[in-house]
Amino acid sequence: MRPILTVLQKNGVLFNNAYTNVSSCAPSRATILTGRNLWELEEGGLLFGALKEKFTTFTSLLRQNGYATGSTGKGYMPANTKEPYQTIPLAKEYNDLKMVAPKYISNKNYSGNFDDFLSKKGKDQPFFFWYGSHEAHREYELGIGAKVGKDISKIQVPGFLPDNAIVRGDIADYYYEIEWFDSHLGRMIKALEAAGELENTIIIVTADNGMPFPRAKGTCYDYGTHMPLAICWGNKIKGGARVDDFISFIDFAPTLLEAVGAAVPKEMTGKSFLDILLSNKSGQVDPARNRVFTGLERHAYCRPDGMPYPIRTIRKNDYLYIVNFEADRWPCGDPDFNSVHAGLYGDIDAGPSRTFLIDNKDNPSIKPIADLSLGKRPKVELYNVKTDPFQLHNLADNKAYSKQCAALKSELFAYLKQTKDPRMEGKSPWDNYPYFFQGYENKYLLPIGKRDNN
Question: Does residue 230 share a domain with residue 85?
Answer without folding.
Answer: yes
